[in-house]
Amino acid sequence: MQIEAIDGFTARCQAKGVRREVSLFMLQDEMPRVGDFVMVHVGYAIQTVSEAEARTAWEVFDQLLKAAPDA
């Protein structure tokens, strides 16, 4: 997800039109900035990633969804 705004340890993030409030607590040693991309798991940003890594991950997720029998 890409960070749109930060307030303390909470970031408003978006990915593919979906917006979420995400905790940055786990990244407090290397705080990301607005515009950075983060990998999010259960509401927590767990890793900062490059834009290329983020786009590649979304491409893989889209391919998995297309291949899923119930998609």
TrEMBL record:
Which InterPro entries does UniProt cross-reference here? Answer: Hydrogenase_HupF/HypC
Domain of life the protein comes from:
Bacteria
Alphabetical list of Pfam families matching this protein? HupF_HypC (PF01455)
Q: Which GO terms describe its biological process?
A: protein maturation
Picking any one GO molecular function of the record gives: iron ion binding
Which family would the database say this protein is a member of?
Belongs to the HupF/HypC family.
Q: What is this protein called?
A: Hydrogenase maturation protein HypC
User: Per the UniProt entry, what species is this protein from, by scientific name?
Assistant: Sulfuritortus calidifontis
